[in-house]
Amino acid sequence: MEDELQGYRGPARDLLQRAGVHVGDEVELALADGGAISGTLMPRYEHADDEHVAVKLRNGYNAGVAVSRISSVHVLGRARPEPTAAAQQVRRVKGDVIIIGTGGTIASRIDYRTGAVTPIFRPEDLYSRVPGLGEIANLETELLFNILSENMTPEHWAAIAERVGRAISEGYRGVVITHGTDTMHYTAAALSFALEGLPVPVVLVGAQRSSDRPSSDASSNLKGAVLAASRGDFSGVYVAMHRNLSDREIAIHRGVKVRKNHTSRRDAFESVNSRLAAVVDLSSMEVRKLTDLPPRGDPRSLKVKPRFDRRAFLLKYFPGMDGGVIDGLVDAGYRALILEGTGLGHVGAQVHGSIRRAVEKGVFVGMTSQCIWGSVRMTVYDTGRDLMRAGVVPLGDMLPEVALVKAMWLLGQGAGAEEMRSLMPSNMRGEISERRYIEDVRE
Amino acid sequence: MSASEGGGAPDYRSLGAKVGIELHRQLDVGGKLFCGCSTAREDGSKSFRRVLLPSESELGDVDPAARFEAARGMEFEYMYGDSSSCLVEADEEPPHDVNQRALEAAITVALLLGSTIVDEVHVMRKIVIDGSNTSGFQRTMLIALGGSLKFGEKSVGVLTITLEEDAARNLGSDGRVKKYGLDRLGIPLVEVSLAPLEISSAQDAVDAAAALGRLLKSTGMVARGIGTVRQDLNISIAGSGIVEVKGVQELPLIAKVVEFEVRRLGWLKEVAAELSRRGVRPESAVGEIVDVTGILSRAKGGVVRKSIAGGARALAVLARGYRGLLGSEPYEGVRVGRDLAAIANAFGLGGVIHSDELPNYGVDEGLVEEVRAALAAGSEDAFVIALGDAEVARRVLEAVSGRLRDLVSGPPAETRAPTPDGRTKYMRPRPGSARMYPETDLLPIPITGAMRARLRENLPLPWDRQVSELASKYGLSAKLADEVLDSERYDLFREAVKMGVKPSVAATVITETLVSLRREGLDVDSVSDDQLRRLFSAIASGRIAKEAASEVLRAVASGRAPDVDSAAEALGISALDDAALAALIDEVLDRNERMISERGDRALGPLMGEVMSKVRGRVDGAKVNEMLRLKLKERLGRSG
Description:
Chain A: It is an enzyme of class 6 (ligase). Chain A: Its EC number is 6.3.5.-. Chain A: Keywords: ATP-binding, Ligase, Nucleotide-binding, Protein biosynthesis, Transferase. Chain A: This is Glutamyl-tRNA(Gln) amidotransferase subunit D. The complex is a heterodimer. Chain A is built from eleven helices and 23 strands. By secondary structure, chain A is of the alpha/beta class. Chain A folds into three domains: 68 residues, Roll (SH3 type barrels); 220 residues, Rossmann fold (3-Layer(aba) Sandwich), CATH 3.40.50.1170; 124 residues, Rossmann fold (3-Layer(aba) Sandwich). In chain A, the strands form six sheets. In chain A, strands 9-6-10-12-13-14-17-18 form an eight-stranded mixed beta sheet, sandwiched between helices. A five-stranded antiparallel beta sheet of chain A has the order 4-3-2-1-5, with helices on one face. The longest helix of chain A has 16 residues. Chain B is α+β, with helices and mostly antiparallel strands. Chain B is 40% helix and 20% strand. In chain B, the strands form four sheets. In chain B, strands 1, 4, 6, 7, 8, 9, 12, 13, 14, 15, 20, 21 and 22 form a 13-stranded mixed beta sheet that branches. A four-stranded mixed beta sheet of chain B has the order 2-3-11-10, with no helix packed on it. Chain B has a four-stranded antiparallel beta sheet with strand order 16-17-19-18, sandwiched between helices. In chain B, helix 15 crosses helix 17 and helix 19 crosses helix 21. The N terminus of chain B is likely disordered.
């Protein structure tokens, strides 16, 4: 049963309970210092204090009134019953593209529990809210789960991979996945590995500004993602987000070469060590490829390999780091350690011993760079050579997060130490580039 | 039907006219409301483009005003510069904590008006999707309720005091792209809404607004200058909806707008009565939209034929019972057809054509009858035609139909804009409460008893006391002191005095001189603060005499001179230095030797007159007098 005084605690709750009022009622709060404030009793944010009562006034404003100042509470009217859910049924049609919802800002609006933005919108709502979306492709939507992306786990990646696999065998020509942006690049990498021989575009999409605001990037990003999934003449896993601050171009990033590089901007995602895969122009509705991409393929070629093993760890080196941290990870049973080293791929001499010990115990140790841009190259300095001699495997220009996900996936496929040593540094899904162009701009 | 004839002012009392004033004033509290950006004007050269979509309120409704804006399918371009904009203005970063001094300023205003201050401020989002906010909403918070404002012998209630962020600066539009400057976005504004005031003359509204303006200025925390203040007027008469006239910038315009609006509402009430007499009901007021391109393509020349030849479609809609009512203009500018045209403008169409203005535009009686037949129009019916892209024309006629339906039930609530001549123009339907939504990026802000007590102890002096202090400090008359303190250029007055300009001179220039130039019909707003600063510095250094101030400003305001310095030069009143003045006085004394010897000291008067006639406007009179007196004494001493 719903709490009729949602969010209220302590003195505020006592006062309202004594007065017999519920959230949604029209109330008049008589003030001890004279006058009165009337309006609709609002739920209280869970993290707010217990000494104020929140009301929505007739002019639409919300305000809090101190419990200590209220002399009495009168009910002016009772809450209207909630509209029934019957009106929210959606016609299901067989489509070209399926939008799979997993939550995040793209599907979020205010939550009175916390007063913050949490995911509530369903993909159906997005569909009806984005003008012209239905004209781009015949769409179907499905809410797989509804979580913030920081709560994503390898089990969620597996569930998404399996659902995508089913969608492709059901005949969809493209898949769009709505996702929270914080860890969207991890999921993109996970799907890249788990979907072998992927014959269609699978496009992850999110929003940096929640879709309850008119300026949200949700609508334009979603449009771009659906255009790429339905009209793109390529296959693979991609991330679709704003190319810049304008609502005109949606950048299509390769799922293994993308990173969230800003906390709030709508163009937070950037292709790293790689050119953008494609750009969707929202005014002409064109999907423009910017580099060679694998073509669409035969649906029967897809193999879904959704198992991930969590025993991989991503460790960022910092000056003076204690090697005991590495010993601890090895002793805790981790099977792969991805180092985010400095510069071309180095860590301080004080941890070399622990690294040697890890390798001796059969733990895979791979090196990436915290510089983010560029490739590791461990032959340039003695430190790098020492580390390679100790058994550390340089991972080229693979992004640290991608290397972590790849290690989890390879372990999940049952790879042993030797296979890890040979597969981690070889390019499987485009995650390692041989060449980095002079004009690779950071976008 | 009878339209009461124009002439004197409307009978406000018997019409039940009411005016609610909402005064918005920028605060000068160091930075914007939700970030530390500069509030100074900046013409940014960089830009980005956005679109906005209406979003649902917490109750699941979409606001009618928001829907109207969205239907126009506009794109927005935002110009920005680095000192006035950061990621907050670009809506690329959550708002920072609210500017504490701005909060204090709003609470101070509430204390001065005897309002009830809320204990916990909740920041709200007011949905506005005309592009004036990058986010698609304006952040606003209720600070206080109730209270009252005294003006003269009267008083009016206060509804609410809110603190909100200013919108971006409108830079005009180019087709479907509207341009805005981000420098103004986020500047803190305090808004005081007064209760509807029953008026007996339009001056009542002006007086109330003026009194409120003085009260706000008395806090010493408001910004001054062109564009720092604007009034919204909520005007109604008995039986009408409330019309919100947005952004009336100057007090004198209030009276004109109120008079125009009351006349317009009065006329619409008569229109509604006549429609009812003709048996029109809201649901039957308009017909289906019909394509009449075929008929009108046979127009004999004129704009209709030209448009159709250029590829435009002609769509028409029946306006049941409206014959004669669309074109009637009982007062200048009060005409139903004018608002229909404004709706078309909002969608980017030049206007609409209605049957009351036909035959015309190359459409003859025969074609009119054919259109009437196509629409099955009866003898009392009218119709409206939109010419243009089929989709745009359809949207326009849908909006026109909505308007025609609404008018049947009486003057509708809506939002209008003032025109520079004091009329009003249709903007959009009036927003409902569905546009208010909690700002989820911020926590509620408690207003503690301690904070209230501290502000109560530090309340500013009442206006009258401030005026008398100013008068005695600078030796000004009470009237001049009041005008200076009330002036948008008060800060400039203080600057001028600091530069060494005599207070009475500085005060006169920024008040009386500018007012009298405005009365001459000159655009004194075009005289920038910077130009006035130059003028004062020239007066302080003696390069321009105070007597020339008015001439110089007239030249600048009329556009005859680009700036103060070239105006002074063109008027031949550029600096006369001491040596030149001395030479000139010597010359006059030489010429008048006989008179000097005859009259002695008493020659000073006529000599002064002669010298001044040559140097007026170039040297301060007091300085001339001093030098002349010395030189005369010298000569008399020598000869005597």
